[in-house]
Amino acid sequence: xxxxxxxxxxxxxxxxxxxxxxxxxxxxxxxxxxxxxxxxxxxxxxxxxxxxxxxxxxxxxxxxxxxxxxxxxxxxxxxxxxxxxxxxxxxxxxxxxxxxxxxxxxxxxxxxxxxxxxxxxxxxxxxxxxxxxxxxxxxxxxxxxxxxxxxxxxxxxxxxxxxxxxxxxxxxxxxxxxxxxxxxxxxxxxxxxxxxxxxxxxxxxxxxxxxxxxxxxxxxxxxxxxxxxxxxxxxxxxxxxxxxxxxxxxxxxxxxxxxxxxxxxxxxxxxxxxxxxxxxxxxxxxxxxxxxxxxxxxxxxxxxxxxxxxxxxxxxxxxxxxxxxxxxxxxxxxxxxxxxxxxxxxxxxxxxxxxxxxxxxxxxxxxxxxxxxxxxxxxxxxxxxxxxxx
Length: 390
What we know:
By secondary structure, the chain is an alpha+beta fold. The chain has helices spanning 11-28, 32-38, 43-51, 70-81, 85-104, 107-119, 229-266, 278-306, 312-338, 349-359, 366-389, and strands at 124-127, 143-147, 150-160, 168-175, 178-185, 191-195, 208-218, 222-223, 268-269, 272-273.
């Protein structure tokens, strides 16, 4: 999208980013409004993403993926996010399933599932949120009981992104009161999928509620060890999800800036263009500076992810918190600058405004991110204080 003061990509990777950009320009941006209005994602664009290998790009090469560089994956999420947050939801949750299996799956699970996920022939989704459990995800109520060589699951999951069309769900439930993850195919008996419509944003993200009524899967479908469901599997998935959303928010904010800038240069009020009015200049300046700052935090997270530095989890939370907050602010200012046009569903910024609000909630609300960040800052301060005393 916008000018990059610091760009870690080499020439080959920049050429791939150009492909991302062309794909979005041709296939996504012209159709995003229609997808939002129909509350359905076009199956053709999903097939295109899969065909290019981008949907499963994070899967290991040995299973048909690309082991895509975090910087390049971030650029991919930014470009998709600049046009459609609903479409961004697919590589986000599909990647959550890939990362969960690749990190915690057995050799048999990886061999059986990752090739299909890498090719996009199998679509994955992550089922954690429940009707009574949102931000306090560690208190899930969905129950799993072992019955011989099978696991029987009962409970509900809510607002599952791409739940309407996913082929495989990573489901977190309690097994002997220990949060545990399970791999549940779509066609499993006892699983009911109910579409969710008329959400504020992410309207084309094929959201669904899942109902598990004595839903039985083989014990081999357990992902990781009992008790690993939240602390390990969900932790891996959420870290990936926050990384994608943070970069997508950079794209959304950049999209708002581009539209607002173009309008401010063309629209005249009181004998001069909007861009010549100081209050409009203030909003444009804040959008530009915020975009640069958000991208910088995302680049920091990508750098640590590439180095496999444990600090990446915290830096990703920081990036997601700031970028989503800024995207909400940028979209609000874009609506203000466009006035009546900004309130019209025929344009993009009204949808950006709605989607940006959702960005502040998903993959851990901004209030949860504040708690995580504050606790980390306190811990670091105490650690540094003890070191200075010595």
